[in-house]
Amino acid sequence: MGYYTTTRQRPPNGYPRHNSRLHVTKGGRARSTTRDVERCLQVEMAAYDAVIRRYEDPGFAITKVWKDKPGWDLEATRGAVRLRIEVKGTEGRQIRAELTPNEYTASSAHETFRICIVAQALAKKPVVHTFKKNFDGTWFDESGSIRLRFEEKTGARLSV
User: Fold this and answer.
1) Claim: this prediction has a pTM higher than 0.85
2) Which phi and psi (to 5°) does residue 95 adopt?
3) Residue 108 is assigned to a structural domain of this protein
């Protein structure tokens, strides 16, 4: 058995940093899962590109704000409309993601918040699922057919 620890890796092209994982064995040796990290970065960058295309096509201006850490990655503006967009990507068909505490707080605080989960992000035609919060607090995709469920988790960071 071993445990995992995270390190920071700089991705190419100005994309946000990604937490990579190192596997630390019983003997204390660290083994990097570099291939997994590179694949995660590819998925993440492809997801950003798909969401940017999805919003630029109908005439939204896109601003990348992830460096400021407001709790979302992109802002899409068109006229008086300003959407706050958190981007998540998956390699498969599943529509699943995790939000950081900052992202989760922002998702509740702004009615123009959108969560875009890009399924099959590395495919030729990735599928962008955009979710928004309804007046009753439930989250549905734009067609109203897929409900996004939230499972709150409590965690802790330990150190010596």
Assistant:
1) no
2) -110, 90
3) yes
